[in-house]
Target: Protein BatD
Amino acid sequence: GGASSIASGAPQASSDQANEQKNVLTAGGLRPVRYQARFEAPGVPVWKRGFFVPTVLAPLGLLLGVALIGGVRGRLALRSEAGRGRQQAKAARKRLADAEKLQSSGDVGAFYGEVEKALHGFLEARLGMPVVGLTREVLAEKLTAGGADAERRAKVLFVLEACDFGRYGGGGDPAERQKVMDAAAAAMEGWA
Model:
């Protein structure tokens, strides 16, 4: 081998650098697989610890609790339909008391409007349906179906007509306002 045995000085230095290993681990750079060893027994698995079961079941318990509370509220709402009617009737009576305060004031329209709203609220509570916007004939039919006697129907219709007349036709007479107030109170009282 003549060609391979003849070597020049400069090309040999460059080939030595190319053959040299780039990533050499020295004794100071070697570490064992576990850098720090622990010589103790393995710990208890997470699922065998005391907090695991309550932590897993807590969201399910919260969901069931919320569902239970929602169900109880729903049942109470169904059961309180009669209570809601009583509350509406009580609010209507309070409105009538507010109208009585307006009776002596000079605002006749506000007085008659409040009396009409009080009577409508009371009728809605007793009949269990909205009555605003019904014609007088349809309202009389609904009152008859609701169990109101003829005298009570006549008082209700009188009060509604008087409120319309008082608001839009003047109605400034205090005696007439007192008569409407008494008729509205009589229509609301003693309802079965």
DSSP finds eight helices and no strands in the chain. The helical segments are 2-5, 9-19, 52-79, 81-103, 108-127, 136-145, 150-169, 174-188. Residues 1 and 7 are 12 Å apart (CA to CA). The mean pLDDT is 79.
